[in-house]
Amino acid sequence: MECDNDRAAQKKAELVRIAEAAILDYWRSVGEEPDPLRVANIANETINTFVQITPPEKARLECITMRHGGYGGGRSSKSGNLLLNMRKLFTAIASGVMTTVGVIAAPWTAPFAALLLWDRVKSSLNIDITEREAVLLWTMWKNRDLNNYVSEQDLLDLVNSELNSNGRPAISKQQMGDSLETLSNMSCVERTTSIASKWWLCERVNATYT
């Protein structure tokens, strides 16, 4: 079956545009005006690292039009697949593989764009993503255990330490709770029922596109 690589390329370009807009909006919200070329590089590197795009398959539909005595044809596409891999993105940032992220201070620039993409592709809730959600998820990933669980007990101190190290103001327990609820609504994290006071982090999510 022939793959619709043009449609996959269009989908990638669409995701890059969303990421660029998210990064620009984020940095303007914190009083910065980054170089558009740097933003474009971060957006491209984020999509290349975070999203695996499988092209749709082309399917040819044959039809007969008896009145005209000829054959007509049409094309339709089966759905393509998007795999959003948060583990791969965060690992690349932490290891320094994503060199463009370090160009503009805060390490959660790419996670901010990734969260917006996650919401657009997976939850479709159109949630208002803020810096808090990005830094909270980044901190949780840095402090998770081998099973992707993170304890809530010291989470606020860890988040505020991360914010402080990047020149950002601390957040309150209530603000952290609100952000945890946002991430939970997006299915990025899930409160565990079997282990008290712990959260489970979702590594990846699949979605389709046409």
Radius of gyration from the alpha-carbon trace, in angstroms: 21 Å
Helix content: 40-55%
Instruction: Tally the helices.
Output: 7
Helix/strand/pairing class, anyone?
A: alpha+beta
* Shape field: globular
> Tell me about the biggest sheet?
3 strands, antiparallel
Q: What is the number of independent domains?
A: 1
How far is it from the N-terminal to the C-terminal residue, by CA? 16 Å
Q: Name the CATH superfamily assignment.
A: Winged helix-like DNA-binding domain superfamily/Winged helix DNA-binding domain
Weakly predicted, low-confidence segments: 61-76
- Quick one: how many beta strands? 8
**Order of strands in the sheet with the most strands?**
1-4-8
Mean pLDDT: 85
Q: What fraction of the residues are assigned to beta strands by DSSP?
A: 15-25%
Return the CATH topology.
Answer: Arc Repressor Mutant, subunit A
Order of helices and strands: HHEEEEHHHEHHEEE
CATH architecture call: Orthogonal Bundle
What is the CATH C-level name? Mainly Alpha
